[in-house]
Structure formats: structure tokens, C-alpha cells
Amino acid sequence: MNHTNTEKKTKPVAPKVKELIANTKSVILATVDAEGNPNSSYAPFVQVEQTFYILVSFMARHTKNLSEGRKTSVMFIEDESATKQIYARERLTLEATTSQIERDSEIWNNVIAKLKETHGKVVDVISEMGDFILIALQPVKGSYVNGFGSAYFVDSNLEIIEHRNDVNHQSK
Predict the structure, then answer these.
(1) Where do the DSSP E strands lie in the chain?
(2) Are 13 and 146 in contact (CB under 8 A)?
(3) How far apart are CA 75 and CA 84, in angstroms?
(4) Pick from 157, 144, 152: nearest CA to 78
(5) Quick one: which of 138, 141, 139 has its CA closest to 101?
(6) pTM for the full model?
(7) Whose CA is closest to 165, among 155, 145, 154, 150?
(8) Cβ(91)–Cβ(21) below 8 Å
(9) How far apart are CA 148 and CA 33, in angstroms?
């Protein structure tokens, strides 16, 4: 049975992209290496304007992928313990470009201070370690889901472009 636009649909839930980001302390990272092999990980982050920043170690596989500007996707997702329906967890997935921030630059110092404010004194220790670098994640485009029948396209400014109602769910 195909569900079409004429059948009863679930009413979309109002998007709350900024609230999801504000309630999330770490971002899930999806990167690829030079051979195209996928890698997933996570990192604590801070947001400054529309850019996300992560402080990561070169000992982690994802850091090389990020520092070399390979394709990257990031996901912010509702905590499992807070969700009412595990199949419909609120989430924001973004394609992002990456760039490394020069150590001791004005941006470095400002972001490190914000990371410390957000994530504690551990940032003082790891930011002084030579293998840790600061990466900027600049959103390109993405999608936001906050329930069944409630999915949206998102632009680089984290604004909702449109409801994703052009693809209908199908069942047997």
C-alpha cells in the first residue's frame, strides 16, 4: 500500500533546530579517509555564530580526515533517555566544510575560552598538548527531523528551507 498526499498524514512538529544544538554538548562526526573508508566518532563542540568548533587530537583517526578537508557530516541528536520514540529521535544532520584554526590566533584564543567555559578546565590541559588542533566545521546544508512526517531541509545558516513532504513512506 502506498501512502499518498491524499491519505491522512502526520502533522509536522514545529522545528527547533537552535534548541537542539543548545541542548547538545557533543557532535557526532562522520568522515572518510584518503581511500574513502568511513569513520565515525564524536567530539565536544562550541558554536560561534554559524560555525562549530571542535578541539581534537591527531591520535584520533577522524582528526586527519578533518584536517585534510575531506567530506564531513556532523549530527546533533536527542539523548536516547529523553526521547519518547526511539525511531523518531530529534536530530540535525549537516554536511560541513572543515578548516584548521591556527594555534594562538585570535579565533583560537576566543574559541578555546568558550570551550573552557562550556566544557571545563580540562580544555586548559588538552589545548596545551601539541597533538590537539582546533577545527572549524562550517555547515553547507542538511536535514532536521523531529518526528514522524516532520523532516525539513536546512540551509548553511541553520534555517529551515522547506518541509520534506515530497517523498512519501511506502508499505507493503
Answers:
(1) 26-32, 38-48, 51-57, 72-77, 91-101, 132-145, 151-154, 160-163
(2) yes
(3) 19
(4) 144
(5) 138
(6) 0.87
(7) 150
(8) no
(9) 33
Distance separating alpha carbons of residues 65 and 27, to the nearest angstrom: 16
C-alpha cell of residue 38: 568511513
The separation between the first and the last C-alpha atoms of the chain, rounded to the nearest angstrom, is 5
User: How many CA atoms, within 13 angstroms, populate the side-chain half-sphere of residue 5?
Assistant: 4
Angstrom distances, CA of residue 54 to CA of 70, 78, 147:
16, 19, 28
Q: Cell 528551507 identifies what position?
A: 161
Contact indicator for 115, 53 with CB cutoff of 8 Å? yes
Per-residue pLDDT in tens (0 to 9) along the chain, 172 residues:
444 444 444 555 667 999 999 999 999 999 999 999 999 999 999 999 999 999 999 999 999 999 998 889 999 999 999 988 999 999 999 999 999 999 999 999 999 999 999 999 999 999 999 999 999 999 999 999 998 888 999 999 999 888 876 555 555 5
Residue 99 one-letter amino acid: S
3-class SS at 68? coil
The Cα–Cα gap between 134 and 159 comes to 25
Whole-angstrom Cα distance, residue 87 to residue 73? 20
Question: Residue 2 gets which letter from DSSP?
Answer: B
